[in-house]
Amino acid sequence: MDDLYRDYILEHYRRPHNFGVLEHANASHEGANPLCGDRITLQLRLSDGKIAGVGFTGRGCAISQASASLLTDEIKGKPVVDAAAMTSQDVLDLLGIEISPARLKCALLSLDTLQQALAEAAQPAAASAAGPLPAAEGQTA
């Protein structure tokens, strides 16, 4: 059974789903794993509280790239709150094989990048909802 999952991961590595620059993205983040050189830039098109579009670019090991391919398939069309609630175990379940502690960062790079992109996308909304920032002491607004 492990061979079947290994083939599945290699297929996602060789022909990743949602690979490429996403047109009209309104959220993006680049994540990296400096220990092994993996890089992923995840781009999202958020609309009406859902992930209307998703794409990624990057390079790295088979685990990191397959993880990004599988994760983007999983979150496409989902409510943002559901995607933001995804856990490490969810991603490991998508991969379907045992991941050694040394490869865990590779496997979870896509999830970390997604969480960062969603957090950055939420910041402008939170800042604009709070109103203008107060002027620092001694400065005028």
Write the layout of secondary structure elements.
Layout: H1 2-14, E1 27-33, E2 38-47, E3 50-59, H2 62-75, H3 80-84, H4 88-95, H5 104-130
Helix pairs in contact: 1-2, 2-4, 2-5
Explain what the structure shows.
The protein is of the alpha+beta class and 141 residues long. 48% of the residues lie in helices and 19% in strands. It has 5 helices and 3 strands. Strands 1-2-3 form a 3-stranded antiparallel beta sheet.
The total count of strands amounts to 3
Largest beta-sheet characterization = 3 strands, antiparallel
CATH domain topology = Sufe protein. Chain: A
Succession of helices and strands:
HEEEHHHH
**Which CATH class applies here?**
Alpha Beta
Low-confidence stretches: 133-141
Question: How big is the Rg?
Answer: 17 Å
Decide which structural class fits the backbone.
Answer: alpha+beta
How many distinct domains? 1
Q: What CATH architecture do you see?
A: Alpha-Beta Complex
Number of helices: 5
Strand order of the largest sheet: 1-2-3
- State mean pLDDT (0 to 100 scale): 88
Approximately how much beta-strand content do the residues carry?
15-25%
Report, as a whole number of angstroms, the end-to-end distance. 64 Å
